[in-house]
Amino acid sequence: MKKTLFTLCTLAMAGASASADITVTFDFTPEQKEVIVASLPIEKLLTARRESDLTMTFDTIAIVDRKASLALKEGAARQYVINIEGHEQALSDFFAAPGENITVSISGPQEQMTANVSGTPLLDGISTLKQQALPLRDTILAIRKGENTTDKFEDILTKYYGLFEQYVRQNPDTEAAAYAMLSVDSSVFMELYALLGQRAKDSLYYPFVESTKTRLEKQLADEKRQAEMQTGDVEAPNFTLVDLEGKNVSLTDFRGKWVVLDFWGSWCGWCIKGFPKMKEAYAKHQGKVEFIGIDCGDSVEDWKAAVSKYQIPWVNVYNDSSVKEGRPDQTYAVQGYPTKIIINPEGKIAKIVTGEDPQFYTDLDNLLQ
What we know:
By secondary structure, the chain is an alpha+beta fold. It is about 35% helix and about 25% strand. A seven-stranded mixed β-sheet has the order 10-9-13-12-11-14-15. A four-stranded mixed β-sheet has the order 4-1-7-8. The longest helix is centred in the middle third of the chain and has 25 residues. The two termini are about 35 Å apart.
C-alpha cells in the first residue's frame, strides 16, 4: 500500500475559546521589530485548482516588550503562518477559527528559533504529537539529505506512521485525532477512520480527512480496475484525441499492431527522464509496435513545446484535463506518471506499468517475441 505522509511539514490547528487573538511571545529579545502573519481561508486549501488560488493575505504587527498580538480575522476559519523578517522558514503554521485564543511561544536563541502553538485542546494535542514525532522527523530528513546513512529509511518511516496510528487508536474522540489521521499508513486509514468520534469529526482538520478518504477510495478502486484490465482478455477502451496538427487520432486506427500508450506530462520529471530509454525501445521495435504519447495536465502550448524540446518521434495526442468525464487517463485508471500500457494486435491490454520502471522494457521485449 502507498503511504499517506500529508503532514511531514506538520501543520498545527486550532480548537475553540472565548477570545479572538493570536499572541506571539518571545523568551528572548529578537533583533527584528515586527512579526509577519500570512493567512488564507481553509476552504481555499480544499478547493484550490492552481497556485494562484492560494494567494495569502499578509499582516505585519509590531513586537513590543517581546510580544506581538493580532486579532483573528472574521468569517471563515483560516490557515495562519507566523514568521519574522530574515528567517528562512515559517516559525509556526496552524489553523484557527474566529472566537479562538492562541499563543505562539517562540524560544531562542536568535539563530535557532523554535515555536510552540497552544491554547485549545486541538493545538495542545498537536503540540504533544509534534514533540513525540520530532526525533523521527529529523531522522527522516537527515536520511533524505544523505546526512544519515545508519538508519534504514523504511524502518524510520514505519515508526513515524505508527506513532500517529497509535495516537488515533488511543484518542479517537479528540480534535487532534483528525490531524493524526493524515500521517497514518494508508493500509490502516479506513480502519482508523471508522474509530473517529464526534470531536474528531468537528475538528477543523476533518474535511481534509474526508478528502483523503475519497482519494484513497478512488486509489483502491483504480488498483482493482487495473488488475482486472491485465487479465489478457480485456479490450482496451477506445479514445479519440487530437494530434499536433489538430487531427483526430483514435486507438482503433492502430488495430492489428502492438501499441504502447505513454501517459505523461511536461511537469513530470520521471516522464522526461524516461524519454531516452523509450526512444531506444521505439527504434529497436520500429515497425512492430506503435507508441502513442498521451499528454496529461499541460496546456496545449506547454504540450507542443515539450514535444518539440524533447524531440519525441512517436504519435503525440493531447488529453484535455478540462474534460470532466471519459478521458483516457480515467478509463485506464491511471494512478501515477508515467504510466505505460501495452496493447496487443487484437486490441486487448497485455500489461500496465506505473512509474519509470525498467521492467516495462523487459515485458515489451518478451511480449513482442
